[in-house]
Write a structure and sequence with these properties.
There is one protein chain. The chain is an alpha/beta fold. The chain has 2 domains: 5-139, Response regulator (Rossmann fold, 3-Layer(aba) Sandwich); 149-203, Orthogonal Bundle (Arc Repressor Mutant, subunit A), CATH 1.10.10.10. The chain is built from 10 helices and 6 strands; from the N terminus they run βαβαβαβαβαβααααα. It has a 6-stranded parallel beta sheet with strand order 2-1-3-4-5-6, with helices on both faces. The longest helix is centred in the C-terminal third of the chain and has 15 residues, at 175-189. The model is unreliable at 140-144 and 210-214 (pLDDT under 50).
């Protein structure tokens, strides 16, 4: 079995080192390292299974940082003091697998890590922050949370019958990134099964009516 490894990226040394030391004592996880910047993490040779990432960092940060870490092969769990609506929605749209407030208790952070590890599409958003997803839906007149351009591409290919690996190959992204996008698509649309996602893609005009003939 492949060992589960973690990394912490935070520019506050006391919090960074404290979080790194505490979470690995709760489970039999390996700590790849604690880093003060995304660049420092990307420069080291080994990718962690899950990266606990702060939002505001010097240099590369926010959605751009999330995308680069995912491309490296790591899942991203945000653990940040920035719990504003735009930060939460923006990081989830960029592919983060979860968002936990920095002041959360260690048991909740461990629970979030376990949720991300539970499956290739596992995710966690604390109940308080999950309300932002509902608010975003209401702001659009009751419609589902809008999909990003990349999520629309992934959904269109999945609805067309492509396997996850085929989608990855077609879009030149990793399999893990495809599955992260699918997880967010399911969260935003409320559709879990592929047949439901296909119907949703048709309703949104992402694929032609399968019953239509020229």
């Amino acid at each position: 079995m492949t060992a589960i490894s973690l990394a912490v990226i935070d520019d506050h040394p006391i919090y960074r080192d404290g979080l790194a030391s505490v979470v690995v004592t709760k489970r039999r996880w390996e700590m790849v390292g604690a880093f003060d910047s995304v660049e420092a993490y990307l420069d080291q040779a080994r990718a962690a299974t899950v990266v606990l990432l702060d939002y505001h960092l010097p240099g590369l940060h926010g959605p751009a940082a999330i995308r680069q870490i995912i491309e490296r092969g790591s899942a991203v769990l945000m653990v940040s003091g920035n719990i504003g609506r735009e930060a939460v929605l923006g990081t989830l749209a960029a592919g983060a697998r979860g968002y936990v407030a920095k002041h959360a208790e260690i048991p909740e952070i461990v629970e979030a890590i376990e949720a991300v590890l539970a499956s290739p599409t596992g995710s966690y958003v604390s109940p308080r922050l999950a309300a932002y997803l509902l608010d975003a839906s209401r702001d659009q007149g009751g419609e589902r949370l809008q999909l990003s351009a990349r999520e629309q591409e992934v959904l269109a290919l999945v609805a067309a019958g492509e396997r996850d690996q085929d989608v990855a190959d077609a879009l030149f992204i990793s399999l893990g990134t495809v599955r992260a996008h699918l997880d967010h698509i399911r969260t935003k649309t409320g559709q879990r099964r592929r047949a439901e996602l296909t119907r949703y893609a048709f309703e949104q005009g992402l694929i032609p009516d399968p019953g239509h003939r020229d």
